[in-house]
Amino acid sequence: MKNYTLITGASSGLGYEFCKLFAKDGNNLVLVARRKELLDKYASELSAKYGISVRVIAKDLSLEKSPDEIFNTLRTENIKLSALINNAGFGYKGSFEEIRLDIDMDMIKVNMLCLVKMTKLFLNDIIESNDGGILNVASTAAFQPGPFMAVYFATKAFVLSFSESLAEELSKTDVIVSTLCPGPTKTEFQGRANMNEAVEKTHFLFVNGYNIT
Ligand SMILES: NC(=O)c1ccc[n+]([C@@H]2O[C@H](COP(=O)([O-])OP(=O)(O)OC[C@H]3O[C@@H](n4cnc5c(N)ncnc54)[C@H](OP(=O)(O)O)[C@@H]3O)[C@@H](O)[C@H]2O)c1
User: Fold this and answer.
1) Whole-angstrom Cα distance, residue 153 to residue 203?
2) Using a 6 Å cutoff on CB, does residue 152 contact ligand 1?
3) Are 205 and 184 in contact (CB under 8 A)?
4) Calpha distance 170→208 (Å, rounded)
5) Confidence of residue 2 (pLDDT cuts 50, 70, 90)
6) CB of 42 within 8 A of CB of 13?
7) Which atom of ligand 1 lies at the shortest distance from residue 11's CA?
8) Which residues, including other chains, have CB under 8 Å from residue 129's CB and lie 6 or more apart?
9) CB 10 within 8 A of CB 32
10) Nearest Cα to 15, choosing from 191, 180, 200, 207?
């Protein structure tokens, strides 16, 4: 069995920055997101540049079955994880009253449910690898309520709380559980989050993704 690092949300932003860093350190990678063409492109580039193995699995992580399908695919191919980066996520700006219910539900599914399920499914692999780790991407949004992004802020508070508890539970193992809490970062996040207008007024607050990772 070969050990791999799995990165969700690998097709852009912070996820892609993580891919480059982990590839540079010689880790084999599993890249997960919906846009397969982008993932295939990055996989070819990273394997050619760093001589690593890269497996692409295109999945919609808002679907409850996706984590199980990823787990079963990797089992079939004899691929085990030593590290898991739960990075995929999105937000949406607007009043709670006005944001469509399906957007809020998908946000909860991707940002929280998928993250918990991926962690549960792959935890044994990571413990057995003896030098493994889990990195969950939260946000500075985790530290306070966020009117007009109420559900997004709440999902990130969940990620931070869950990760801190898990880190304590696993403190007697070799597994390190970390939580990344970035502030405003230039990625595709703002465009998808209905935030372009707000970004124009606060552009000086934003840093580049590679500065965060
Ligand atoms: N940018 C910021 O200011 C900021 C600040 C704090 C925290 N964060 C957090 O950082 C993480 C990464 O975001 P980013 O800033 O890098 O944004 P981004 O550029 O929009 O990247 C988000 C990634 O998540 C994937 N994703 C979204 N929905 C998905 C779904 N249903 N199924 C599978 N993959 C999905 C996207 O891939 P596909 O579209 O190809 O599926 C993409 O690869 C998120 O958890 C975000 O909440 C961002």
Assistant:
1) 20
2) no
3) yes
4) 32
5) low
6) no
7) 43
8) 3, 80, 81, 82, 83
9) yes
10) 180
The structure's pTM equals 0.97
CA of 31 to the centre of ligand 1 (A): 13
CA of 172 to the centre of ligand 1 (A): 31
**Ligand 1 closest atom vs CA 35:** 40
Q: Is residue 181 within 8 Å of 143, Cβ to Cβ?
A: yes
Phi, psi of 176 (to 5 degrees): -100, 125
pLDDT digits (tens, 9 = 90+) for 73-108: 999 999 999 999 999 999 999 999 999 999 999 999
Question: Is the Cβ–Cβ distance between 7 and 87 less than 8 Å?
Answer: yes
For the chain, how many residues are written?
213
CA of residue 42 to ligand 1 center, whole Å: 16
Cα 2 to Cα 27, 74, 118, 168: the distances in Å are: 10, 11, 19, 28
The question of whether 152 is a catalytic residue gets the answer: yes
pLDDT tens-digit series, residues 22-49:
999 999 999 999 999 999 999 999 999 9
Pull the structure tokens for residue 34: 């919906």
**Residue pLDDT, tens place only, 166-206:** 999 999 999 999 999 999 999 999 999 998 877 778 888 88
**Hey, CA dihedral for 203, 207, 209, 213, is it positive or negative?**
negative
User: What is the rounded distance in angstroms from the CA atom of residue 24 to the CA atom of residue 67?
Assistant: 26
